[in-house]
Write a structure and sequence with these properties.
globular; mainly beta; about 0% helix; about 45% strand
């Protein structure tokens, strides 16, 4: 059975509205927002017909060659046959309970906010239970294919399963004096400039402020809560919603209705700056 663990780096960090919008605080930036309510769903594995999970693309194209992020939706009681993938993927549970492991392993039902990786070539099954079971899945390059277990191979990579209860949260050093402020969890990658990495941001109830980014890739997906993105209008980012930018950008965010957890994929440091958005 896969062991749950998390490696903590020693340094700190660093609708379907497809039109481009511009944040008031940075007139030159371009931000894309995709609301989960407008995501277009299609079979993840068309060969399985009605038994296939559903997939909704947030960025990229899983049938192409580029980096891609998509939502995967599983019905209650879903269990896949043993299979492999041709590419490694990372995933975060958004709702329901999901199990992903070796075919012979006992079920380890991962709750919302859990993180796992699935190395290419390794035989595994995926199962789900709950009224609505959704995960964010991302790949560094496509195409994303499902292949028979007989095609298994050892890529040298090893899987990681981290339940939400084992996520390690830390306070960014510049916010260390704020007892009830945002927190960050480090999930994967290299935090050096120009290197890809994945983190969680936890915004406390009542948070208002900015997330300043400068990476050529900066993508955020809501995992829990209902944060708002503030622009000429206010976009409620329900779980599964997404926004992105490239280059220097300032994102005005609030979490007024409770705690929010955001998944961040980027390749440069970013800053979280609490401040009032009511002025």
């Amino acid at each position: 059975m896969k062991k749950a663990f998390l490696i903590l780096p020693l340094i700190l960090c660093s609708v379907f509205i497809t039109q481009k919008i511009t944040a008031e605080s940075s007139p030159s930036q371009s931000t894309e927002i995709v609301l989960v309510s407008e995501v277009k769903w299609e079979p993840l594995n068309p060969a399985r017909g009605d038994k296939s999970p559903q997939a909704g693309t947030l960025w990229g194209n899983r049938n192409g060659t580029e980096a891609t992020g998509f939502l995967a939706k599983f019905v209650d009681g879903f269990s896949s046959p043993p299979h492999i993938h041709n590419v490694t993927y990372r995933a975060v549970v958004i709702s329901g309970r999901i199990h992903n492991d070796d075919p012979a392993a006992e079920k380890m039902w991962m709750s919302p906010g859990s993180f796992w990786t699935q190395p290419k070539g390794e035989v595994h099954i995926t199962a789900a239970k709950g009224e609505e079971n959704i995960a964010l899945v991302e790949i560094d390059h496509g195409p994303y294919l499902v292949k028979h277990a007989d095609d298994a191979f050892d890529s040298g990579e090893r899987p990681v399963n981290v339940d939400s209860s084992n996520i390690v949260w830390v306070t960014p050093h510049e916010l260390s004096l704020n007892e009830d402020g945002p927190e960050i969890a480090y999930l994967w990658g290299n935090l050096e400039e120009g290197q890809s990495n994945g983190t969680f941001i936890k915004l406390p109830a009542g948070f208002q402020g900015q997330i300043q980014s400068k990476g050529s890739t900066f993508r955020i997906v809501t995992i829990q809560g209902n944060p708002a993105y503030h622009n000429e209008e206010k976009f409620i980012l329900n779980p599964g919603s997404y926004f992105s930018s490239s280059g220097d950008a300032t994102h005005l965010i609030s979490s007024e209705e409770g705690t929010s957890i955001l998944y961040v994929r980027t390749n440069a440091p970013y800053r979280i700056i609490p401040m009032s958005l009511d002025d």
